[in-house]
Amino acid sequence: DNNFWQHILDRLETDPILEKVRVCMRTKDGTPHHFECTFNVCTQNHDLIFFRAQDIEPVLKQQEELDQTRQQFSHVIQALPMGIHLYQLEDDKLILTGANPAADRLTGIKTEKLLGLPIEEAFPNLSNTEVPRRYMAAAREGQSWQTTEFFYEDNQIKGIYDVYAFQISPGAMAAVFLDVTERRLQQLEIMKREENLRITLNSIGDAVIVTDKDGFITRMNPVAEKLTGWPEEEAVGCPIERVFHIINAETGEEVQSPVERVLREGRVVGLANHTILRSRDGREYQIADSGAPIYDTDLQLIGVVLVFRDVTEEYQRQEELRHARKMEAVGELAGGIAHDFNNMLAAIIGNIELIFLHGGEHLGKSRKYLNNVLETAKNAANLTSKLLLFSRKQSLVRRWIEPDQLIRNTIELLKPGLPPDIQLHWQPSNDLPLIMGDYSLLQSVIINLGINARDAMPNGGTITIEADQYVLDCDDIICQTYDLRPGPYLRIQVKDTGEGIAPEIQKRIFEPFFTTKPPGKGTGLGLSAVYGTIREHGGGITIDSEPGKGATFTLFLPVESTSLDDHEHERNIGSSPSRDVFEKRFDNLHIIVADDDESIRNNLTELLRQSGAHVIAAEKGSSVIEKVKNGKVEIVILDLIMPELDGRQTYHKIREINPTLPILLISGYDLGSENLELTRDPFASFVAKPFTFDQISSEIERLLSC
């Protein structure tokens, strides 16, 4: 308009050239348009003016858009959750020139109070860090820098920050930072929980494997590493079936992993009994286990925890205990059989002696056959003696024994029976502890084991005998199997390099009459007698063998002495008695014969009557007590095993009536330690069945002479 142009003319009066004058003019259609104009006075009298106009509408639009972008960017910076500090390089110092609101919020200070200060003054404790140097490099040279979890603390600020520094223009840089203190504390808490979990898992005695919802392993503890043979770093990421390989102990067939069932059914699942874990190196462990689902807070199944433990020793202990109980039961049965058999033998011998008594010189050749019967009875008595030993109902002749001497002497007896291709090794030791035991029976044990070792090596080999002192504790399987008290024991091992013994045979090897030898080569009572002898000595016996790898029998004998007095009883049935045995040795002697076995009672009564005695027969203990109370009795022959009132009870009741009445105890069992005290009575004695009349007569005479 006129005013604009007049303004231009007025200015040209003083300044002949006007440049970059912005003018807004309307086009023909009335649209405003911006131009940048230049005015130049061409003549001295100002009557000619040069005018040039440049269209700047596109530039203005671009500038407007740029301003808009800058404004938006400024809004973004102001709204960012990350803090931003701006620095300008001035006189070789980094000056804090700006900050966004987040910077104030994250640091907890008003940055405007720090604007214009060098970085070392704004944040004094940065001086001893690499931050100023890194920021300077970013401003000068454009070297970006990033660090995580940078800890900073002064009297106003304390926190952990992630920092990123970069150049925004030469000599200027920005530092973007984020307060990660809470995140770091959460991480530390998670790490602490992880460490506690790791310590817990490592402290658990059971094996633990954790899988994800797809059955891939995510964690396992050291016990699981040991049992599976897989290190955790190798197992993580593997499917459970690859690491946890289980089979049925009886069939050898593969068993489905409980993890699969847990993932499928979403509940706790346990393994069936008799499950074997086969480790990476081929070892096998009897295990018990269970798998449980892992749920998240939304009750979504996210994995499985598998807990299992090695129960091999526990399983073996149970098997040993079952076997020991079985052996005890078999022992009771064997003892009962031996007792009844001895009663029968006593009846047989008694009847033969009666035949000798009444037949006299008229027996002729029959005497020879009767002697054969007596010899057979003697062999049968030895057989029942072994049965009684197995059943632990045979008394021991105890004395102090030097193990080194025992083994040395036994080896001398064993050597002549070994073929040249079998070597016998024994390492003597002078520091073996003394033991209390039956020398001859223990010698028989070692000989028996040596002979069995010899028979197991038909093609030759080596027998090794070793002995040492071994301390058992209550956790040892043998202590629990045989109910042995913890403490020092003499351990004797007899090893061979023979054929070995199959597991199914090991389970029965100590049973009486069980043998793997061909008919006529063994009675099956050798190892049962070994078992009985060791048990009677308060010890235990184990066997360790595999087919083709030889066998080791280990004996454990207690070192402490026993409180039993020495007691010795030798059986000697002998040959046919001469007639003078039945002469009137017991004229007018009043005797009670008490035995519930009618044959023995009648035979003994008849033999004693033939010897001149007045005999009263009784089959019950109560009858004996009645006779002792009311009649003339000079000696009582008393069976220990009777119904109702047994021999032991009857003995004590007789002693209440007559403390010095001679009593001769008889039994199909050996006396046994539980009845040994009875023979400490000077007016009592014991004879084991089967016996001869001469044995009975000798004991009667000895008792009457007291």
Note down, in words, how this protein is organized:
The protein has 706 residues and is an alpha+beta fold. It has six domains: 2-62, no CATH class; 80-183, PAS domain (Beta-Lactamase); 204-310, Beta-Lactamase; 316-390; 398-558, 2-Layer Sandwich (Heat Shock Protein 90), CATH 3.30.565.10; 579-704, 3-Layer(aba) Sandwich (Rossmann fold), CATH 3.40.50. It contains 21 helices and 27 strands. The radius of gyration is 54 Å and the shape is rod-shaped.
List keywords for this structure.
706 residues; 6 domains; 27 strands; Beta-Lactamase; single chain; rod-shaped; alpha+beta
Contiguous low-pLDDT stretches (5 residues minimum) are 519-524, 562-576
Report mean pLDDT, rounded to a whole number.
82
Distance between the termini: 167 Å
Can you tell me the overall shape? rod-shaped
The whole-angstrom Rg is 54 Å
Helix content: 25-40%
CATH class of the largest domain: Alpha Beta
- Structural class of the helix and strand makeup? alpha+beta
The major pleated sheet works out as:
7 strands, antiparallel
Number of domains: 6
If helices are DSSP runs of H or I spanning 4 or more residues, what is the number of helices?
21
